[in-house]
Amino acid sequence: MEKCFWGVFLFWRSFPCRTNTISWSSHNRRYKRNSKNRIRNSASQHCSYVLHKILKMKIYNYTDFGEYVGESTAGTSPLDGLPLIPRNSTIIEPPARQDKKARVFNGTEWILVDDFRGETWYYHGTRNPIVIDFLGSIDTQIYQCNPQPHTEQEKWDIAREKRNGLLFESDWTQLLDSPVNREAWAEYRKILREIPQSFSDPDSIVWPSKPE
Fold first, then answer.
1. Of the candidates 128, 205, 123, 207, the residue with the CA atom closest to the CA atom of residue 170
2. Whose CA is closest to 187, among 204, 162, 165, 210?
3. d(CA 30, CA 63)
4. Packing angle, helices 152-169 and 182-193, rounded to 10
5. Maximum Cα–Cα distance for the chain, whole Å?
6. I need a labelling partner for 66 at 20 to 30 A (CA). Which of 45, 83, 153, 202 fits?
7. Whole-structure pTM over 0.90, yes or no?
8. Are 165 and 192 in contact (CB under 8 A)?
9. How far is CA 141 from the centre of its chain?
10. Nearest CA to 145 among 182, 116, 113?
11. What angle do CA 50, 56, 61 make, to 5 degrees?
12. Are 192 and 167 in contact (CB under 8 A)?
């Protein structure tokens, strides 16, 4: 009778333990399965994000001289689906635009270069204007941006330089075998030589016309 009692007791004690063990094991399996699903979903989302970035990759285009001209979206290769980076473009983003600066790609990075294109500068001495049409720094020994008005002496120097140039250009007309009206050209040259004596103000000089 005693053995029977202990047998029933032990059986009763062991029953909830087996139930708990089975329940805990089942919970573990569900947890592991859910964890794997979460990891798989996270990896899938990450891959989708990376793929989206690749397919929407920005490229920055430049001219043959490296000057930035704008951005676009890279095409994709029909073979492997990877982005295609065409000639004269890079995935390196250029710096922000600055006044009187051009963004130029030198093959490895973007640099800022002086840009005075479209501005009118002046040659030293003659003050003759020139419209800048190139990138880069300007030699201030040759050009100046805002020249001061010519002095009286500078104006006469410019007039004499022009007069001497016109005389040099017409030297050939005084050769004996020159096929031109030598007398007309001689008179033209005489007027040029007498310009400093004929005019008191360099701004009032009237330059003679070349003979036909």
1. 207
2. 210
3. 60
4. 160
5. 160
6. 83
7. no
8. no
9. 27
10. 116
11. 130
12. yes
Cite the DSSP H helix spans in the chain: 2-55, 152-169, 182-193, 195-198
d(CA 145, CA 123): 9
CB 128 within 8 A of CB 148: no
Amino acid sitting at position 144: Q
Pairing of strands 68-73, 75-76: unpaired
CA distance 120 to 113: 18
Per-residue pLDDT tens digits of the chain, which is 212 residues long: 544 545 544 544 554 544 444 455 565 666 566 665 665 655 555 454 444 455 678 999 999 999 999 999 988 877 777 788 899 999 999 999 999 999 999 999 999 999 999 888 888 777 788 889 999 998 888 888 877 767 888 888 888 989 999 999 888 888 877 788 888 999 999 999 999 999 999 989 999 998 87
Cross-strand pairs, 123: 143
Residues in the chain: 212
